[in-house]
Amino acid sequence: MNKISISRRIVQVICLILLVYGGYIFKDWKQSAEAQKQSIFPSLNAPEGSISTTKFEKGSILWPSGATPVIENYPPTLVCRFNPNGGMFKACILHFFSENLTWRTSIKYLLPYITLFVLLCFLFGRAWCGWVCPIGTVGDFLTFLRRKMNIPVKRFPANFRMNLSFTGYVLMVIALTISTLIGMPNLARYQCYWFLPYCQICPARLICPMFGLIKPNWKDFSTGITTTFTILAWIVLGFFIAAFYWGRRVWCHMCPVGLINSWFNKGCGIELHKKAVKCIKCGYCADVCPMGLTKMYEIDKDTIYNQTGCIMCMRCIEVCPRKGCLSVKFFGKKFFLRRKTDAEKVSQQVQ
Amino acid sequence: MQKKFLNKYNEIILKNLSSKKPFLNDEFEQALKYRLKSGLSSMDDFYKAIESNFRIEKTQKDRYIGYFCSIVPEELLIACCLKPVRLCCEEYAWTNAGEEILPGDICPVIKSICGKFYNNVYDYLDLVIVPGTCDPKTKLAELLSPVKEIYFLDPGRNSDYLDNVDKWTALYTKFFEFLKQKFQCNAGRKQLLNACKLTNKRTEIFKKIYELRIKSPDVINAFDYYVMIYVSFFMDIEQWNNMAEKVYDEAKEKHSLSKKPKILLAGSPVIFPNFKILDVLQQAELEISSDIQCTSFGRFYNPVVIDEDTESGIIRALTLKNIAGSICPCLLNLEKMVNLIIDTVNQYKLDGVVYYNLRLCQVFETQTTVIRQVLKENKIPFLSVKSDFGKEDIGQLKTRFEAFREIIQSGKE
Known about the structure:
- The complex is a heterodimer.
- Chain A is mainly alpha-helical.
- Chain A has helices at residues 3-25, 33-38, 93-103, 107-124, 127-131, 134-148, 158-181, 191-194, 197-201, 204-211, 224-246, 256-261, 284-288, 295-298, 315-319, 342-350, and strands at 270-274, 303-304, 326-330, 333-335.
- Chain A has two domains: 3-260, no CATH class; 271-349, 2-Layer Sandwich (Alpha-Beta Plaits), CATH 3.30.70.
- In chain A, helix 3 runs parallel beside helix 7.
- Chain A starts with a helix and ends with a helix.
- Chain B has helices at 10-15, 27-37, 44-52, 74-79, 92-98, 108-118, 135-143, 161-183, 189-215, 222-234, 237-251, 276-283, 297-300, 311-324, 334-348, 362-365, 368-377, 394-412; strands at 64-67, 83-86, 125-131, 150-153, 262-267, 287-292, 352-358, 382-387.
- In chain B, strand 3 (125-131), helix 7 and strand 4 form a beta-alpha-beta unit.
- The interface between A and B is medium-sized, with 31 and 39 residues.
């Protein structure tokens, strides 16, 4: 029973282990500098006079606990720069944009990375959030703990979720603007304080090192700016833990990587279908959605339904009591059919 | 604090009653007549259970709770170790007794319920739960207060999940607290999960029987099916599951022999012993192959799906099963009913729809026109029938059904 949920949990755990501990498991496969020069993905380095994460010392916020990653690439999920021992991939896409806007790398070096990112997003949409993201796995574990302790879930109305997305976009735009500004030559002296502003407040920076039992740099009270960033990081981490504990995937409305992924949901390879004549309006699909979306319950016509915000966890399809009402197609071909009940298997035999 | 209706005037009401017991109680003969038509030997247990229902011996520990609609959640009652007994009845003999309290043109089901209560048939009940669905049923909360303790459950008339699920969850939570306080039991998450497992098992067995009847409607014929539904009103749920599974195991080995047209029966419920419609349909050579009625399909077909297994999460899932997924016309469910009829007929290739309407029930009657027009667009044969408990109109009904059968058979050629 619940085949989709079981396979999703297995994929989530495997991805957590690979993405976070990949640096330890695959450390013999790390690309050397000569191999990097010959691949289609050029290596991106800081120009003369610009700062990079390898120049920070151990006591500061942006000290990377790992060295180099196994593969220098940026998949569309929340793999963090601060994974222990480098991790499997280099960093998330926001780190990529932030760093290269400061370094003013020319666009021809960035195009291969961006093309691969867009291609992966078009294939799977926001399923990266629901099936791969290691931070989402941590959050789902907190939900499991809450249920064991018999604490009821807190559901948030649609206004609150839209305000969260708006806040997420505002923070992202501010971070990218700051990154562009400090790339200018006459503002370069501020780079040591304002480099990678979103990374300084992101909760993943504080969580990921703990997987390798490395202490994250959770405080730096040396100057006014670093103090501000430290306190902001604590506030965002507190919100992250509260959101995942009392809600279900509330953080995913605000996550910057998730917001970028959600642009590709309408038109990606995975499509959710509903046959409206079979619907009995029981409301189960809207009730189990971890993102709180209700469109699947409301629509009355046969449509393809891919809302921005859907993380493709397929819980709605699993719980629907009417066979054939909800289904999933991958590029037009049906897969993950709703499991047949005993009654349906028998009725086919009797026929 | 639970309000007691009509508290000041109880004595006046009880003093002015004269007992009008019916002079003939032919339940046993009815049961025997349908037992002869059944071809399955495992149905004998069900017929014996009907006979023994009239001799309930109540022990010190047993608590019986009466309730009326599918709106009331049985799982909460089972979790508190109480025995739920459904009280909807269509017995013609008690309607006359009920006319002392409810005169005039009122639903005959409500009259027969009143007649039974005021003649001490249900002395063994500890509590009766009355939902506020249709008008006469809502007033029943006041009319039965002199005789029994009543709990009134009001889901409202709007069946939309998004607007009302918080209100329904609060309603069920308050009901659960009342039960735990009155009967002094500590029911928690574990007992609720066990109760939901029992009802889900019952749903599975019912779905198997329902789909078997669609393919071969004469292996478990309509009389057996409705007798099984009636026995589930008062029988312990585990015992019913075992007996029903034996019936299914015996029936699936047999093959269907009938070539008669298959009919979907929708509308008012058919409750033993009021099998007049089933008799007439059988005489007119039509097979009832599936049904969309609140006592059978509407009550058993939806499972409880538990995602959040906290205590409030389970109660919320129960509201979705019982209220949001219900097909009762007292709530705003017309589109759902039309969708269900069209989908069932098209998926299983049935031949026609008979919409049975109990006389004086307005909520079912208001739906007839819309259903007729939509089914005409979809080219599905439709017949709507209005009838009562009496036997005067059997000849007229038979003529109409035979004409309907001619229409279906000429449509096929």
